[in-house]
Amino acid sequence: MRGTLHKDRLAESPPHPDRIDDAIRPLPASGERQGATAPLRDTLMTQHYDALETCSPAEREADLFTRLPDILRKAVAAPAYAERLKGIDPAAVISRAALARLPVLRKSDLPALHKATPPFGGFVVASPGSFGRLFTSPGPIFEPEPAHPDPWRGARALFAAGFRPGDVVLNTFSYHLTPGGFIFDSSARALGCAVIPAGPGNTEAQFELIEAYRPVGYSGTPDFLKILLDAASGAARDISSIKRALVSGAAFPKSLQDEIKSRGIDAYQAFGTADLGLIAFETSAREGMVVNEGLILEIVQPGTGDPVSDGDVGEIVVTSLDPHHPWIRLALGDLTAALPGPSPCGRTNTRIKGWMGRADQTTKVKGMFVRPEQVAEVGKRHPELGRLRLVVTREAEADVMTLKAEYASPSDALREQVATSLRAVAKLSGAVELVAPGSLPNDGKVISDERKPV
Length: 454
Description:
Blueprint: H1 38-47, H2 57-75, H3 79-84, H4 96-99, E1 105-106, H5 110-116, E2 133-137, E3 141-145, H6 155-160, E4 168-171, H7 180-191, E5 194-197, H8 203-213, E6 217-220, H9 222-235, E7 244-247, H10 254-262, E8 266-273, E9 277-281, E10 289-291, E11 295-300, E12 314-320, E13 330-336, E14 338-339, E15 351-352, E16 363-365, E17 368-370, H11 372-381, E18 388-395, E19 398-406, H12 412-426, E20 431-435, E21 447-449
Parallel strand pairs: 1-13, 4-5, 4-6, 6-7, 7-8, 18-21, 19-20
Antiparallel strand pairs: 2-3, 8-9, 9-10, 10-15, 11-12, 12-13, 14-15, 16-17, 18-19
């Protein structure tokens, strides 16, 4: 199947934003692929969700950027996008370089934008009644669920974690107001699984459901999975039917991964948001996360829209190709880095390291906010510099700001020029330290507040 694009989409299947429009269909839910022998059928059902996952990276990239101009035309029908993208010719945005010239939309700005122009900040042209469900997340941010199948792009993440059509899945994400429960519920049902809509908490009721329905799959936070396992052990309840899990929404450190594995459950991580659904997911290779199909993921310097060099840590920015509710360069505020090459599992989309912290590093120095974009502006004024890091400390009961900048041939003249730029941009004076190239950590941190809490 690798690199082969099938033009045999089921006639009754509606268009889906995750797939090359005329190329892909998922494997039949029953596993009964017409004309396939049982061994071939088993092989097909255990490797990849569809042929798109193994197409060539160049073919995927060409498809995404062929579709993007039409998505942009649909986006600018909404007043907020029309204003943000004023003067942009959608037909010209056919490459990553062109996309990188568009402004980013920061998720942290959405609460104020939604409050000013309810419910969706003017970024959605369709009426609320055209969606399947309507949610809210803290902020508040208002999120609509598209009405097409698998609206949150999660079926392939579950498939990569070992879930299969006909499985029974215990879904313990919350179903109350926020989209978490429905993200995993609709994804599992799109794959052909039956879902127990358990939600979190009430372990006694969970045990009754598990013992009655014998689910093989779990979706929820890793923390609650451990709570269930510990409580079941203490109460002598049998939840041994659960053999695999897709977890998200909380840290899943190696120690907890090992413990869950030792108790007979193969657990995989997924990274997603309430706006976009599942963005990336682990596979059997266990080497980073594979970016979901139907998304254009960029990694940019925090506080800017400028892509980082390959392998550098930066902020995740996502463009989605759902014509009903497109997102154009949504900056999530989360850090990651790209991994080189395709996954050993055979999936060819970009791999990322997973969640590596928060990008919002704004801090207050001498009563004034200093932001990552200001550090980036200093870098733009001095392109000869390498990586930059603004370090904030406290000495003699006063805030001290030092900009560390990588440069191979330091000089007092350059140091003074950079200090002048820092003062002009940040409206604060700070020292400048020119350091050797490669000496600053590649961790995405632009501002390091090293003041000890009082």
